Amino acid sequence: MGIFNAISKLRNIGIIAHIDAGKTTTTERLLYYAGKISRFGDVHTGDTTTDYLPQERARGITIQNATVSFPWNGKNINLIDTPGHMDFFFEVIKALKVLDGCVVILDAVSGVESQTENCWNLASHIPKICFINKMDRVGAGFSRTVKEVIWKLNSRVVLVNVPIFAKVNSEEQFVGVLDVVNRKVLKWDPNEPDNIDVSDVSIPNNKEFLEQFTKSRESMVETLSMFDDKLVESFLEDAEGDYLKLNPEILNESIRRVTLQNKITPVLCGSAFKNIGVQPLLDSIVNYLPSPLDVKYPEINLKNLPMKYQSQAGLVFNNNKSLCAALAFKVIHDPIRGMMVFVRVYSGTLKNGHVVHNTTTGETFKIGKLIRMNANMPEEIWQLGTGEIGVITGTSIAGKLSTGDTIISDSLKRDGLKSLNRKPEFNLQINPIVTPPPVFTISVEPKTLGNKKSMENALNILITEDPSLHVTKDAELGQTLLSGMGELHLQIAKNRLLNELNADVNVGKVMVSYKETINEPSDVTIMENENKVKFSIAIEPIQEDLSENIIHKDTETWYSLGSDNNYLVMEKNQKFSDHLEDADWPLQIPYNTIVHSLMSSCIVILQRGGKLRNFPLYACAIRVKGDWEIPLDMTSPVEILTLSRTILTKITNEVQEEGYSVLEPLMNLTIGVMGQDMGSVIQDLTSARSANVLSIDEDIISSSGEKSLEFQQIAENQYLPPDLTLNNARLGNDSVSKKIIKATAPLKEIMAYSNKLRSLTQGRASFDTTYKGMIKLNQERLRILLNE
């Protein structure tokens, strides 16, 4: 099999959803029906394949990404099961960085939920399939959920299958699906999960489904025809304008083409727990989601470096077929195997024993061993090809790789880096993963001075594995602080510190993570040392939250400094700017090393904090003017580090106390309440929570004023099969009287809010929160904080 052909058979996909939508249960069924496991586990009994951590099994939730590989219909699927809880959203960010497509799981009872929207927006750049799960549940609404996908997620849909029901004890029960593409009725036997009764929709016994099939097929063809001229041609010529005569193969090809363009979302339904609809989902994954050859080029730091797909090699950088480039997207420490780094190979072949260069840090080292992980079960391999996902392990990589690092090597020679040394691809970096800012903090202190070293080692393991955890030092209080994405996030980290990493520490209560920022740009400070190393640097505030790792502008480039919206801004140096991406770079020190050294200095100084409470600095741009000088023969970056830290220390020291402001996390709130409870909830929000109420809407699709008129019209015109749940929801008094309150509030004011909301509404309300950004404290809130 040729390399190109092998790559085309790969599917790198993820499972994303709101918590409790059934991701892990669906993953278990996918593995079972693909023959990867002989029996499926259960979330409630704690024996699932992908939720293998002790805390995952104890809590019944997914905490970290788990990778599994399995075949289906001649294709190889690499699947990443992601967490649904908001506190572990960074795991979703990491996964989507290296995935080519994803399956969005929706709860048919709850519909599109807040985390569904967050995940969808994060995955906006890749093709998706929707699987409406839990169709067996009381209150499940297929049509209602599809309308919410159109309305809330701004997506056109194609119904690949629709649910069918049968009367059991005088009640309608979900028993299977109507396959709109293949004209089939599929029914599952609840007592025999491996058996499917498949029949043609046109036989007399299926007469009741014919009208539903006809309307669904017409809707499918009309939607696809808006984007696919090939289908229109087949419809008019081969099918003679008859929707029902269109060949299933023609329809599948059309759905794939339009899905890869991200114009539509194929929708399927089922009940993973009842083993219904899983095989059609597997078919759709391989039929509709992209291979690594169908996706856009990766975003890289070298904007002028040529990239293309070649017929025998896959993705090639700068016409160099032997170049291997891979991105590290996850790091774990295994008690037996040591450090394990998960990588996605973008070009070339990564091989055991080959020397690799970390272009992010400048480190060069040899790969020890390559393995492919199936959840927590390793499978040794000798190479990873283009598009593949696997794991590097061995003692040689300890401390050499972090999440977001790019590594390059020669695919053919064990030590072929010398041939790359003066080529632009030697500095190639796949844009790293954006880390969100932490919003909660706990203090961590060793029980005795003798425990300090083990505490630091344990914390280092935590932040290496999970870069959304941050460790800082409070110089004023002499404390070590651990910050994370939420209370549960820090509970898990605390449990790992005490029980897995055996750190003898005392852990404080959860606090809000505050930041400081500067109010005005500083003056430019110019320094030159005795060896003619010269920098001119200033610090200025950033007025908006940026989410890109590298921002190229005409006269400058912005490099992200991590999770606190801080950036290093490198203005163009007229002496050297024309040679950044070619072999004529005149300095002994690579440009990437210069940038990396400056970034290291910036991070250290910004973490020291401001003058009000020593909180880490946030939203600061450190601008390096274009007149910097470095001697041509200098080989070590030590002087760059020393001089830049001296300048930055001088600048921050010269900013007066009144030149700083304190920032606090601001959260978005979405609260669902019954009409009779709305008044007390709003009063509590505005008087006790310092909240700003943005809108109050009816909880029915047609009343929302936030979505575009275009998608409102699409939702209303979309053919959907009869849905009793949807009809009942529109007629029932409870649903009509339910209100959706959207507001913003400081994080500090909504800690433990769920208990208060439960008390105000007698348990009838629900709420979700998402991080909105950092906001300056007003004078009253600042006074209270400074006096604490």
Give an overview of the whole structure:
One of its GO terms (cellular component) is mitochondrial matrix. It holds the Pfam family EFG_C. GTP binds at residues 17-24, 81-85, 133-136. By secondary structure, the chain is of the alpha+beta class. It folds into five domains: 3-182 and 248-288, P-loop containing nucleotide triphosphate hydrolases (Rossmann fold), CATH 3.40.50; 307-427, Elongation Factor Tu (Ef-tu), domain 3; 444-460 and 473-511, Elongation Factor G (Translational Gtpase), domain 3 (Alpha-Beta Plaits), CATH 3.30.70; 517-655, 2-Layer Sandwich (Ribosomal Protein S5, domain 2), CATH 3.30.230; 663-786, Alpha-Beta Plaits (2-Layer Sandwich). 28% of the residues lie in helices and 30% in strands. It has an eight-stranded antiparallel β-sheet. A seven-stranded mixed β-sheet has the order 2-3-1-4-5-11-6, with helices on both faces. Helix 2 (23-33) crosses helix 10 (278-288) and helix 13 packs parallel to helix 14. The protein is globular. The N and C termini lie far apart (68 Å). The relative contact order is 0.09. Mean pLDDT is 89; it is low at 701-705 and 727-736.
Care to give the gist of this entry?
Helix content is 28%, strand content 30%. The chain has 788 residues and is an alpha+beta fold.
